[in-house]
Amino acid sequence: GDRMWHFAVSVFLVELYGNSLLLTAVYGLVVAGSVLLLGALIGDWVDKNSRLKVAQTSLVVQNSSVILCGVILMIIFLFKTQLLTLYHGWLLTLCYILVITIANIANLASTATAITIQRDWIVVVAGEDRSKLADMNATIRRIDQLTNILAPMAVGQIMTFGSPMIGCGFISGWNLMSMCVEYLLLWKVYQKTPTLAHKSAKVEASELKQLNVKKESDMKPAEGVQLIIEKDVAGFEPQQEKEVGCAARIAEPFITFRDGWVAYYNQPVFLAGMGLAFLYMTVLGFDCITTGYAYTQGLSGSVLSLLMGASAVTGIMGTVAFTWLRRKCGLIRTGLISGVAQFACLILCVISVFMPGSPMDLTVSPFADISARLFENEPLPTIASPESEMIFATGMPNLLNGSIAPANSDPEMSPEPVPLISVSLLFAGVIAARVGLWSFDLTVTQLLQENVIESERGIINGVQNSMNYLLDLLHFIMVILAPNPEAFGLLVLISVSFVAMGHIMYFRFAQKSLGKQLFVCHTPNPKAAPDSSPPGNTSTV
């Protein structure tokens, strides 16, 4: 259900706002900004509460929000004409704000679910076996990619041959059913794994203190450990809580935010996490921006769902490559090889910018679309077909989105063929790069799992999510400033540059960790390899 919603929400917003990427970019901006500000607090909440309570609460909030969003979108699609006339269109604008707000709540709950299940539960279930942890990470990612195949295909076909309103209803109903099934499955896993009922806090609190007050005086130990042992302090020193009172409660979120980022900076895998975060500063992924761009270029929801399915297949190949490379070369070298593979595939996206069919036009101001909408109240400019020779083109009408057909075209004439070489190279590069991307993502995920102490898992991964969304936020800001398709080519070039910088950071981390052994690819000794120490040991990588 979550994957259905992730695919459909971008198409819904593009459909509602006249085939512009502006509304999807605003949605992405709100989502990224929320996780950026609240990621550490969400992680802290995960650390302070029982695993079952966190998992069940976040699951219910996430699915309920998606269901409510689907119902509101159905109402908008049904009564959009009437809503436009009421209060000069302000009621429709209020509906847009409501949809984005509720969808943002769903995303925050999804973040909490991902942190507790994929960063905490799985480590406890795997125990001390790192190979088992790697296999479980890869298996979970394969399941995730399979849902990326099935979910978009299902909702894409419904939206293409039915209507967006029917798609909203289907997603809402599916999430209602899946919420009940997921709730029961979580309860069964919790019952079969007794260690999930126990969370360490006191032992690791001293380790957290060493990380947070590393450069501070030892005279104020309570400040460094307030993040995790707040409940213990409340139990042993109730008078202190009364003395601080309301001021402490107001300051607590800010202290948690600060301590979380300080602890994240002091992690031995800081550069690896930063390298992963830089990969989020890109429009070369199957998010709402890329799918929205493809939609404006004439690809239907059905074709987009098939392309997303193909990307999921290559993502599954990336999980297989991860497990094989880790056994052959070790965990850290796997990330290095995966980064090189991803960057090589993205060269196709750079080439696509300059091929026939690319809408990039440097003579058109990147801000023309947003300035026309905000100041001149003009409609979106129609994208004219290139006058150059159209090679590798097709005239298949079922691939086209009828909403972008020229208004002055002769109805007796067949639709002009659409040049596909540029968009084909773009998606070929994006899809092929998923092999290296997911292998690299699994590498950094396991590095974080193995080298972060148990009492910090929630907040460190919350800060990592915030870091990811910070770079994600920048790419949404770019699209908001330049939402017209003519500027998309520039965004592609900037995206590839940030991916390169991210892998350079990881290379620096790998160089510091392995030294001269970095390029010596051999089967690691499970007792001596740097990525085979027991989970929770922060002294080695």
UniProtKB/TrEMBL annotation:
Organism superkingdom: Eukaryota
Question: Cellular location of this protein?
Answer: Basolateral cell membrane; Membrane
Give an example GO molecular function: metal ion binding
Coiled-coil positions:
none
**Record field: transmembrane:** 20-46, 58-79, 85-109, 269-295, 301-324, 336-355, 418-437, 458-481, 487-507
Q: What is the organism field in this record?
A: Calcarius ornatus
* Topology within the bilayer: Multi-pass membrane protein
| Main localisation | membrane
- Which CDD domains does this UniProt record tie to the protein? MFS_SLC40A1_like (cd17480)
Q: What is this protein called?
A: Solute carrier family 40 member
Instruction: Name the family.
Output: Belongs to the ferroportin (FP) (TC 2.A.100) family. SLC40A subfamily.
Q: What does this protein do?
A: May be involved in iron transport and iron homeostasis.
**Which lineage is the organism of this entry classified under, starting from the top rank?**
Eukaryota, Metazoa, Chordata, Craniata, Vertebrata
Q: What UniProt keywords apply to this chain's record, in alphabetical order?
A: Cell membrane, Ion transport, Iron, Membrane, Metal-binding, Transmembrane, Transmembrane helix, Transport
GO cellular component terms given for this protein: basolateral plasma membrane
Question: Which Pfam families does the record associate with it?
Answer: FPN1
